[in-house]
Design goal:
18 helices, 3-stranded antiparallel sheet, elongated, about 600 residues, alpha/beta
């Protein structure tokens, strides 16, 4: 049994509210996994935060007439509130504009530079002719020089997977305003990725249990490593911690470099907030710890190639050797990179920048968190792109959540409440009783094994199969016809309630809010599935000022949910239950809500 588990969750950009495509990739899968691991007895550290540096923030700030800092503040709060509403059980959700993060990033940069893995060279940088600012690679599109794909980004081609530079693109143009960028010479620092080629290849060969798409993409990318720029001509970001560069107000560390380091800096911040500054080390410097990184497929390369390379360099494990940081010591590389495909809408990627957005906050206000969490788990883009349709969402909510799971809970508890008033005692079990109880008990191992390897769709499908078996059992046994056989009636209801309790446990990682309600409907008291809390904190900044902002934290140690079948408590009083999942209007399946796009435009 692994005592410590790090769940490192991708950092959403603070350039707007998050849409359901984002949380289907990084949010719900990471929380399902983390909740299951906690229920299984592991010590889990689930960390992330808002990614607040880089051109994307500056572009958004310009469009809204705000400063970059004001934009980061605005959307960090919105994103944190949405993630709290979705029930993502972060031990810490922070941000990259903290002074703690700055210090960690600058230390990583310094060690890599001292070890010779950061080199200086001149390149052709893309400049916006209208603003004079650097255009980030991801904001430049054009035709891939290798495969001809029209829509390749300036950093990589999503079609063939090759690493690119903006100057390599044919017919490049800005995604912001369509203008043709101007390329000028500029000096920058580069991460010498080729110096990690051998060590990286050897490490990737040990990752045979990764999802095939992740391993294949990573191995292909690692074959063509090139030095990658880690600074940019910007005035918004972390300063370069080298003499002669620290006071250069137009040079900053590039956002992709500082964002991946956020996993480490957030862990360090979490430790400080717990009162044990060294607590982070058991998640980063212990070979027994397992670390899982959750993101969408467009971020695979940063987590499976570039972040491991950074870690190798800081550990002194590349071709040039080197020292380790006195602060960090030797850091562990990722155990697994858990990447999801894209959630599409009308066949196109759900993305606010491309005109097809269903924002998390809007969704939560109308439908609550668990219907969305269920849809993502059972029908989301785990292994292939999945098209979101309102018709499919309504169908699964009504026929699977309301008719199957909600109905099983409601009628089991209602009949026991009406006939007994409490959880009834069982008499002698029949073969039918024993078969259902055995299936329910066995599901803990089956579903648990699937969750351990991040097969969420198969896991929730198996849990819902037990729900279907229980519904069939009640229909076959017809306890409403057993008034003259109270012992048999009570036995049937006891078995049904035992399976309701089991299924509620099996479904808790997927639908924690509903699980709390079912637990209470079964007469339980206390916190079954803990929820994250939005906490206002104040931090001292590098310039001596103080800043207040929200973070997400949670006390999950005291929750009652455990990954085990618990015998129901005979005699525990029951009340008449309320519907767990109300049905949706079927018309929503045709058009969706008024606030949501019907199709990609």
């Amino acid at each position: 049994m692994c005592a410590h588990v790090l769940a490192a969750v991708a950092w959403p950009y603070a350039n707007g509210p998050r849409h359901i495509g984002h949380v289907s990739g990084f949010g719900v899968p990471s929380d399902v996994f983390s909740r299951f691991m906690r229920m299984s007895g592991h010590e889990v550290l689930m960390i992330s935060g808002t990614d607040e540096h880089g051109t994307a923030i500056q572009v958004k700030a310009d469009s809204e007439g705000l400063t970059a800092e004001q934009t980061a503040d605005k959307y960090h709060r919105i994103i944190a509130e949405d993630l709290q509403g979705l029930g993502l059980s972060y031990d810490l959700y922070t941000r990259t504009t903290t002074d703690n993060h700055r210090q960690v990033v600058q230390e990583m940069f310094t060690v890599l530079h001292d070890n010779g893995y950061i080199i200086s060279r001149t390149e052709m940088g893309a400049i916006s002719p209208s603003t004079g600012r650097t255009l980030a690679d991801r904001y430049i599109e054009g035709e891939c020089p290798h495969c001809g794909f029209d829509g390749a980004r300036g950093d990589q081609c999503d079609n063939c997977g090759r690493q690119l530079d903006p100057v390599d693109l044919k017919n490049p143009h800005s995604r912001i305003d369509g203008e043709v960028p101007k390329f000028v010479e500029t000096e920058h620092f580069f991460l010498d990725l080729p110096a990690f080629a051998d060590a990286l290849a050897a490490w990737l060969e040990t990752r045979q249990d990764w999802r095939p798409n992740v391993l294949r993409f990573s191995a292909n990318f690692a074959k063509e490593l090139q030095p990658r720029a880690i600074t940019r001509d910007l005035d918004w970001g972390i300063k370069i911690p080298l003499e002669g560069w620290e006071d250069n107000n137009l040079k900053r560390i590039y956002v992709w470099f500082d964002a991946v380091i956020g996993y480490l800096s957030a862990s360090i911040e979490w430790a400080k907030r717990t009162g044990d500054p060294d607590a982070w080390k058991k998640y980063w410097t212990d070979e027994a710890t397992r670390s899982y990184y959750f993101m969408g497929k467009d971020n695979i390369v940063f987590h499976s190639v570039i972040w491991p390379s950074i870690l190798l360099g800081v550990n002194g494990k590349g071709d040039k050797g080197g020292r380790t940081s006195e602060w960090f010591g030797t850091l562990d590389l990722p155990t697994e990179v858990v990447s999801s495909e894209f959630l599409t809408m009308g066949g196109s990627k759900v993305a606010s920048s491309r005109g097809a957005s269903i924002f998390v906050g809007d969704f939560l206000k109308e439908f609550g968190p668990d219907a969305l969490r269920y849809f993502i788990a059972v029908a989301g883009p785990e292994n292939q792109d999945t098209d979101f349709t309102w018709d499919e969402f309504v169908r699964r909510t009504n026929y699977e959540l309301a008719n199957e799971w909600g109905n099983l809970v409601n009628r089991s508890i209602s009949m026991a409440h009406k006939n007994v008033g409490s959880i009834p005692e069982a008499g002698e079990f029949t073969e039918e009783d024993k078969e259902l109880l055995a299936a329910s008990s066995t599901a803990f191992k089956t579903v648990g094994e699937l969750l351990k390897v991040c097969k969420f769709k198969a896991a929730i499908t198996e849990a819902m199969r037990i729900v279907s078996l229980a519904n069939k059992y009640i229909s076959d046994q017809e306890p409403w016809k057993l008034k003259d056989q109270p012992e048999r009636r009570n036995t049937v209801l006891h078995v049904a309630l035992q399976v309701v309790s089991d299924c509620n446990t099996l479904l808790t990682p997927f639908m924690p809010h509903a699980a709390q309600k079912v637990f209470e409907a079964m007469g339980g008291t206390g916190v079954w599935a803990a929820q994250p809390q939005l906490v206002e904190v104040t931090e001292a900044r590098e310039d001596g000022s103080e800043k207040s902002y929200p973070i997400l934290q949670g006390d999950y140690a005291g929750e009652l949910a455990e990954w085990v079948s618990r015998p129901v408590v005979v005699g525990r009083p029951l009340s008449k239950p309320s519907p767990i999942f109300p049905k949706l209007d079927e018309k929503l399946g045709e058009t969706g809500p008024e606030w949501a796009p019907i199709k990609h435009d």
